[in-house]
Amino acid sequence: MSKKGLSRDRIVDAAAALVEQKGLENITLHELAGALGVKTASLYNHLQGLPELNARLSERALERLMGSLESAMEGKTGTDALRALAACYRCFAREQPQLYKAMLGLPGFADNRLDELKNSYMQLFRRVLAPYGLTEQKQVHFSRLMRSVLHGFVSLEAAGFFRRAVEAEESYGFAVAQLCTQIENAAKEAAEHGAK
After folding, report:
1. Closest CA to 104 of 184, 92, 112
2. Which pTM value belongs to this model?
3. At what angle do helices 168-195 and 78-95 cross, to 10 degrees?
4. How many CB atoms lie within 10 A of CB 73?
5. What does the pLDDT look like over 8-43, one tens digit per residue?
6. Contact between 18 and 27 (Cβ < 8 Å)
7. What's the rounded Cα separation, in Å, for the pair 141 and 31?
8. Cα(47)–Cα(50) distance, rounded to whole angstroms?
9. d(CA 187, CA 154)
């Protein structure tokens, strides 16, 4: 690739591919420049350095995850949407583990684009919960619970847990089913309370 064709998007895409090969902690600007066929100094025309690259990797990871989740949930509502979201979330974390890890660095970065993206991500979970008629507070609680359960499971699985006795697939299905049941029960309570 020539310097002329270099852009921040191309740099971040190349970094995302390199991260999956080498690991998030192992990427260097020198190695990235080599993969792009440019001098390291050329990267500084588009990025301020490794901290900004890490922020952009977090951004790219969340963009990809959100795009995958949106596609998986398209045309679905209620429990079907929740199950589709959960299945897609785990698939993303397993297929792109280093980018998933990069996404977890988002809270440590602050700029307007990342703030908007973080809000959109949280709203995605809230949108899935909207048809249940829950209060705003309950939506926040269940959104956090969902993210915590999904992240906790995929993180433990990635660390090598869940390899004995019951299959991890079965346990993940059980965890998601329990989430769905809790949300459905809360929706019934909300409906009964509203009818009084």
Report:
1. 92
2. 0.86
3. 150
4. 19
5. 899 999 999 999 998 888 888 988 998 898 998 988
6. yes
7. 42
8. 8
9. 27
